[in-house]
UniProtKB/TrEMBL annotation:
Keywords: Iron, Metal-binding, Thioether bond. Coiled coil: none annotated. The lineage of its organism: Bacteria, Pseudomonadati, Pseudomonadota, Alphaproteobacteria, Hyphomicrobiales. This is Putative metal-dependent enzyme (Double-stranded beta helix superfamily). Gene3D superfamilies: Jelly Rolls (2.60.120.10). There is a cross-link at residues 75-139 (3'-(S-cysteinyl)-tyrosine (Cys-Tyr)). Belongs to the cysteine dioxygenase family. The keyword Glycoprotein does not apply. Fe cation binds at residues 69, 71, 123. It comes from the Bacteria. One of its GO terms (molecular function) is oxidoreductase activity, acting on single donors with incorporation of molecular oxygen, incorporation of two atoms of oxygen.
Length: 160
């Protein structure tokens, strides 16, 4: 990846983090969306976007989880209510669909985390609490031209 591409990604991440600071410091607007998720599921709602940016609010029901996945673009996530668990994975072998857990972090209300589009950048977000959680995700991609920010999904091999 060129130095210019890295600089553009870092600029995007910096601006997205500053915007998410607003959402997490006063979550009133996001919470007033009325977004609700049933246990084990998550729901999302488009907030805004342009040719280079796409922002979404997510409601995480108790026990909800994304698949283990990687992104083709930068992504910045802010937790506006509740706590989510973010798990990072490493591929078992280059090109493998199987991954192993590398680290995990609780992301409480107010936390902001960024994913840079360098490979591998494999993670999963889960609500392991008993209450609903809400997050806002700002992606560096055009939601009208590309259906999703997810580049690839992976499988975790069950430990015996």
């Amino acid at each position: 990846m060129s130095t210019l591409a890295i600089s553009v990604d870092e600029l995007f991440i910096d601006k997205a983090q500053r915007l998410l600071d607003v959402f997490v410091s006063d979550p009133t607007d996001v919470l007033s969306l009325g977004l609700v998720a049933e246990p084990g599921k998550y729901e999302k709602r488009f907030l805004f976007g342009d040719g280079m940016t796409s922002a979404w609010a997510f409601a995480w029901g108790a026990g909800a989880s994304t698949p283990i996945h990687d992104h083709h673009c930068p992504c910045v996530v802010g937790v506006v209510d509740g706590t989510v668990l973010e798990e990072w994975f490493e591929p078992e072998d280059e090109g493998s669909e199987f991954v192993r857990l590398a680290k995990a972090h609780d992301r409480p209300r107010g936390a902001i985390t960024a994913l840079r589009p360098r490979r591998p950048n494999i993670h999963r977000i889960r609500n392991i609490g008993s209450d609903m959680a809400m997050t806002v995700h700002i992606y560096g991609f055009n939601h009208k031209a590309v259906a999703t920010s997810v580049d690839r999904e992976y499988l975790a091999r069950e430990l015996s």
